[in-house]
């Protein structure tokens, strides 16, 4: 098995008491890695290391941070195959998804390399004669970055590089389902030149150590990607302790197909938007709303395309569907499908399993009261609804506490803009899948999908604080 330790203060260290946990390969449920299981004391050590490194790291020059981030991007390109293999073996990623994740992560590092020189202040006019007034930005201190299992490489760099680029130090708590990729990230940033203590990695169980990390007095900011339930809890802790927080949570994203849509494009958008990484994505199009005149034709084409999605070898570029990450999540997917069917929904295709892989599943007749009407399944399960108008589609799209992403397929761009402005989400994509991201955009949602925005466009505001400084010219001494 692979053996991994914690990365604290520029050193690999065993957890307190040499505690470990076993990470299973999600395809066969066989042991893949024995990883350090961090304790409360290990959290304190990591935060203290980051806090000790902060005074010197915050004084590093923009050119130094730019160089380290650029070097990390170069190294990731060189080590692409290593990271792709880890994503496949540890996360059950099909080859296409693993390749996408590595490429996006390279782009995220290169985008972050442009941040240090954009941390600018301003001069301000003053009503006080002789006063020079300015506003400057300063890093906050230690950031706690808590990353998920589904895109662990992307989120490691999206969550952590904003703080690092702006002069903060980081303690990253990785998902217990992705400890190996987290340690590979630590090695990458070490080799890129980041100083000891500027970036630290904890592996273990969030329910055991997450609260200690978030509430530590030296932690000044928290970046979290994960479930809405945990996000609410962390939001309460951060509010109580006056910490800055960014939450990227779940979704119940609608995909609207109007009667004038290009149906081939809409079907492909639904396939990509829902079944990428076997539906384990927060932006998945789990509600597909189709205008009545094209409903039957869309459903026929969508079923045919979905039924063709196979269970091939994860390293085969044609494979779309891999294993669901854990037994707990497999049970959730099964329960959502069984509950819907038991309460009158029709299983159009899918619903079957091959080992730990669930076939891409389409339901119709899903109604309020069924678990999957409101709750996020986080698996390859979507529901298709017939609607009589764009306004009905808009009403159903907004009948949720979530608000992450949405997609609209239509030839009428005026109607597309009306819907885009009316859908209560953080992101809307016209004639493109709901699953979209770029490293420089303001990525995030509203409601139960989180608060704040990831991406270089917003990182500077999130990771720094303003300071107003004035200089008053001394009064001239009276002449004798």
Output the keywords.
single chain; 480 residues; Aldehyde Dehydrogenase, Chain A, domain 2; six-stranded mixed beta sheet; globular; Aldehyde_DH_dom; Ald_DH_N; oxidoreductase activity, acting on the aldehyde or oxo group of donors, NAD or NADP as acceptor; Ald_DH_CS_CYS
Structure report:
With 480 residues, this protein is an alpha/beta fold. Helices cover 40% and strands 22% of the residues. The strands form 6 sheets. It has a 7-stranded mixed β-sheet, with helices on both faces. It has a 6-stranded mixed β-sheet with strand order 10-9-8-11-12-22, with helices on both faces. A hairpin with a 2-residue loop joins strand 16 (353-354) and strand 17. The longest helix is centred in the first third of the chain and has 18 residues, at 40-57. This is Aldehyde dehydrogenase. Belongs to the aldehyde dehydrogenase family. It comes from Rugosibacter aromaticivorans. The active site is at residue 248.
Layout: helices, strands, pairs:
Elements: E1 2-4, E2 6-8, E3 11-13, E4 20-25, E5 30-36, H1 40-57, H2 62-78, H3 80-91, H4 95-112, E6 122-124, E7 131-139, E8 142-146, H5 152-165, E9 169-173, H6 179-192, E10 199-202, H7 206-215, E11 219-225, H8 228-240, E12 244-248, E13 254-257, H9 263-275, E14 287-291, H10 292-307, H11 327-342, E15 346-349, E16 353-354, E17 357-358, E18 361-364, H12 371-374, E19 381-387, H13 390-397, E20 405-409, H14 413-422, E21 427-430, E22 450-451, H15 456-463, E23 464-472
Parallel strand pairs: 1-5, 8-9, 8-11, 9-10, 11-12, 13-14, 13-20, 14-19, 18-19, 20-21
Antiparallel strand pairs: 2-3, 4-5, 6-7, 7-23, 12-22, 15-18, 16-17
Helix pairs in contact: 1-7, 2-4, 2-6, 3-4, 4-5, 9-10
Active site: 248
Organism: Rugosibacter aromaticivorans
Keywords: NAD, Oxidoreductase
